[in-house]
Amino acid sequence: MNKDIAAILVGEKELDELVTKVAGEIDADFQKTGGRLLLVAILKGSVVFMGDLMKKIQSPVEIDFMKVSSYGAGTSSSGNINIHLDLQRKDIGDCNVIVVEDIVDSGRTLAYLTEYLKLKGARSVRTCTLLDKPSRREVDFTPDYVGREIPDEFVVGYGLDYDEKYRALPYVGILKPEVYRKS
Ligand code: PRP
Fold it and tell me: Is 3.40.50.2020 the CATH classification of the domain at 19-151?
């Protein structure tokens, strides 16, 4: 285990099971409704989850990416999101979008993106997250697909970072407090 990790919260086997579960739920829904399915991963944290998830979804999927950041968190209930990389496609009106995230914390990012993509004309918009921290919610938001809920711990790995490090760890681990307290 990496020396900066206090404990593994979600190991490789459980991650595989969670991704399989979410992919199955998405497939079950899309077998009912049909239509074009577009997965939109939010950079950067969701890339590892996205890569595994898209392989396990049986329905034909298209993929795309956005990059956003929040600012002024805690000062307002909505709208404090910067879009750094937007969708460039003109066929969004044909697409049933599922926004793919690694983690939902305050809920601001996905609450904002859901409305943004609806306004952009998506046929439908749903949200998917590997990890959910409902205890941290600041806005009224519930993701449609959730791998699992986790407690309010500082987690890294499987795409999640601290200061851009630890994203490549194959598990989700709890970072030792002394690592983020010293900087
Ligand atoms: C994380 C995560 C979500 C967002 C969730 O991204 O990937 O996009 O924060 O937080 P919220 O529910 O409070 O809005 P981060 O800003 O750390 O960027 P990264 O994915 O590039 O690491």
Answer: yes
- Whose Cα sits closest to atom 14 in ligand 1? 109
By the 8 A CB rule, do 134 and 149 touch?
yes
Q: Which two tokens stand for residue 178?
A: 């002394």
64 counts as catalytic: no
Q: Is the pTM of this model over 0.70?
A: yes
The DSSP result for 145-174, as a single string, is EEEEE--S--EEBTTB-BTTBSTT-SSEEE
122-156 pLDDT per residue, tens: 999 999 999 999 999 999 999 999 999 999 999 99
Rounded Cα–Cα distance for residues 81 and 72 (Å): 9
User: What is d(CA 132, CA 151) in angstroms, rounded to the nearest whole number?
Assistant: 9
Tokens linked to 138: 């600041």
101 in contact with ligand 1, CB cutoff 6 A: yes
* Cβ of 161 less than 6 Å from ligand 1: yes
Own/partner pairs for 146-154, CB < 8 Å, 24+ apart?
146/22, 147/15, 147/18, 147/19, 147/21, 147/22, 147/49, 148/10, 148/18, 150/9, 150/10, 153/9, 154/180
105, 140, 161, 163: which is the annotated catalytic residue? 105
Three-state SS at 55: helix
